[in-house]
Amino acid sequence: MVESKSLSLLIFTMLVSFSSAQTAIKGGYWYSESGLKVSDIDASHFTHLFCAFAILDNNKVTISSSDASSFSTFTQILLQKKSSIKTLLSIGGGKGPSLAKSFSDMASQASTRKSFIDSSIQVARNNNFHGLDLDWEYPSTNTDKTNLGLLVKEWRAAITQESKTSGKPTLLLSAAVAGSDQITSLQNYPGQELANNLDFLNVMTYDLFTSDGYPKVTQPPAPLKNPGGQFSVDEGITKWINQLGLPPKKLALGLPFYGFKWLLSDPNKHALFAQATAGAGAVKYKDIKNAGGQVVYNSTYFTNYSYKGTDWYGYDDTQSVSAKVDYAKGKGLFGYFAWHIEQDSNWALSQAASQAWGSEIDGLQKVYRE
Ligand SMILES: *[C@@H]1O[C@H](CO)[C@@H](O)[C@H](O)[C@H]1NC(C)=O
Ligand SMILES: *[C@@H]1O[C@H](CO)[C@@H](O)[C@H](O)[C@H]1NC(C)=O
């Protein structure tokens, strides 16, 4: 009796201590240029919020003067809303070839990598972030691949050392990476080094079929499956696991909180791949909802779309978001993240995603609780 009691206490202790590290990610990027006030974020739907973006300037990480005050209070404001929230400062972003070259140059030498790494840690600590998120879009050569591998290895060593010296919890380290070979060759990423040195990767599984790239027919911009072609969310995630060797537990699936608009050639022909005359760019989810078109769900491609007159929008609605989150969970991924949260409509997508995932605590603890 006594023995079995202490045995179950031991098992209980093991489960709790093991599972306390096994949280999932329900992530979202807050984009400073979106105009959403940090104090207006509904943090209840998220476990991790990314503050975008810090700048790469002369091989150092800095915050622009216009962002200084909102970035410095970001963590404090969100912790008041949800005490378990983790905040990460995201560095870089999808700002084109010149920023990509700055990353490539920085990563090419030990001295400039050190300058980048040291300044990133200092900026994170000075502004109370829990972690750092590298958003280099994109490494594009074999040399970039090697240098990115060195960068994350040296970065991991530096944040481990800094935690020992400062006595503070180790900073989290993540990276936003391309979501499909449609975006850039996934072969330009050093899978093993990323797996060994990053806490997790945000896989940007979106922008696969945009109205800029494919103006002539309507498209599902980020289809979970693509029976008609090569590229899909599933294709990208599967490559990260099977070809680049990432453990699924290190991957977060990207959800676009926006869609793309096409103009139909014939308003009566409004299916997927209907003829369109011109692309009309990216549109926020909330603006697509406000347009009030007829909403359709296509379960072959796992995408919603809507149309009204000649306006046609390919995007993710609550139904396709839930289907993607179910997929992420089924694949054993770490979770998901959204780009970017201001585009949501009354937190509908954030809530649908969070509900589809369920508990933030991983299966082990759930087993104990049940
Ligand atoms: C999805 O759209 C494609 C292309 O229009 C069509 O062939 C397919 O039947 C649709 N799937 C469903 C389930 O409606
Ligand atoms: C997507 O379209 C279907 C109708 O085909 C609809 O029932 C569903 O509510 C839509 N999904 C949303 C709003 O997520």
Automatic annotation (TrEMBL):
Origin: domain of life: Eukaryota
Keyword Signal found: yes
Gene Ontology CC terms, in alphabetical order: extracellular region
Keyword Cytoplasm: no
PROSITE patterns: GH18_2
Ranges of residues in domain GH18: 24-360
The protein's name in its UniProt record: GH18 domain-containing protein
